[in-house]
Amino acid sequence: MPPAVVLVTGVSRWLGGALAAELAADPSIDRVIGVDTVPPSAELLRSLGRTEFVRADIRSPLIGKVVESASVDTVVHMNISATPAGAGGRAPMKELNVIGTMQLLAACQRSSTVRRLVLKSTSAVYGASPRDPAVFTETMQARRVPRGGFARDSLDIEGYVRSFARRRPDVGVAVLRFTDVIGPRIDSLLTGFFRMPVVPTALGYDARLQLLHEDDAVAVLARAATGDFAGTVNAGAPGTLLLSQAIRRLGRVPLPLPPGAMGVVGRLTRRAGLPDWSLEQMNALTSGRVVDIRVLREEFGYVPRYTTEEALADYARTVTPVVRPEVVADVTGTARSVVHRVAAGVSAVESVVADRRPAPSVPGLRAVRDA
Predict the structure, then answer these.
(1) Which of 24-38, 245-259, 326-340 has the highest mean pLDDT?
(2) Residue (of 240, 101, 110, 238) closest to 175 by Cα position
(3) Are 114 and 171 in contact (CB under 8 A)?
(4) Rounded Cα–Cα distance for residues 313 and 328 (Å)
(5) What is the mean pLDDT of residues 154-170?
(6) DSSP symbol at 41
(7) In sequence order, what DSSP letters do the residues of 105-145 get, joined into one string?
């Protein structure tokens, strides 16, 4: 049975607005209510269709009045900030993420009409460590628990949501752990990182990236809001790319730095007004993180339209290369050829030297030969 009234938090961001517009285009849904502390941009507002925008702060108990007065039956919680700068600092960010979620869950618990809750979470809850498994499943936990920032907030939020699910077993709860979302329209930490002409990387490391196209992200959220799946699901695209491959394909210039300097780079980028990367996010680009998507395909019932490689290629259409990828490929190919030729030459010299080396003297061999 489709929902009658859906409330979407964080509707003034691109992904929240895109989901609200998708749901508003569904004639089987009576009302779509978008909530945020700031109004959407004029362009985003035009795309929202019949979505009703309510300017409200989920940190305030007044969010309960919005839920109750509109008889909301489905809540999609997306108003979780990933950057301190976007929230006005680390303290306001934690307050928005954690306290805001607690107030929203309290409103849902008191409501007699709420029947479904969808949380947009993140695969960052698995952490980022050199000791990580090759692939994370939904039942696994972080080998190194995130100590702060967005990942720590997301872990706390998932804990509160699990507690809510125990108190309200009549409410279907879906937790979506997204990998990095990328595309030509979304503005995220990763897209901002890849827009920098010079991309800092950890010397000696080449992290694996698993991306999700923005269209697939919207489709997963819409399916979660209108379907009946309950539980936790990893949302990512098939396939992986190395960070070096992504940088090369986007025509950026890599800047290898000692791993210990990555935190300093994050502070410098914040001061320069560049992407606001925390130490945890820098660690993710050092160790990498890949999740298993079997549950997404087989139990949740969604197969991503884009692979990781195709998602990056679609995003690349909006990026002006600093260095053309074919030039980088040519230089890399030339360097490899030189290395191979040098290695072949060294092998040939070693072979000649080995042939000219006198045979080892074996005791008794001369006596046998003379006899």
Answers:
(1) 24-38
(2) 101
(3) yes
(4) 16
(5) 96
(6) P
(7) HHHHHH-SS--EEEEEEEGGGG---TT--SSB-TT---SS-
CA-CA-CA-CA dihedral for 106, 111, 114, 120, to nearest 10 = -20
CA–CA separation, 158 and 123 (whole Å): 12
Please identify which residue in the block is written with the tokens 């969604």: 302
Euclidean distance between CA atoms 159 and 343, whole angstroms: 55
How would DSSP label each residue in 52-74? EEEE--TTSTTHHHHHHHTT--E
Residue 151's pLDDT is: 85
What tokens appear for 60 in the block?
């305030």
Which 8-state DSSP code applies to residue 363? T
Dist CA 288 CA 130 (whole Å): 9
Mean pLDDT of 242-258: 93
Q: Measured between alpha carbons, how far is 125 from 153 in angstroms, rounded to an integer? A: 9
Residue 361 pLDDT class (50, 70, 90 cuts): low
Rounded to an integer, the average pLDDT of 94-110 is: 92
C-alpha to C-alpha distances, 162 to 112, 157, 166, 220, nearest whole angstrom? 19, 9, 6, 20
Q: What is the pLDDT of residues 198-244, one digit of tens each?
A: 888 888 899 999 999 999 999 999 999 999 999 999 999 999 999 99
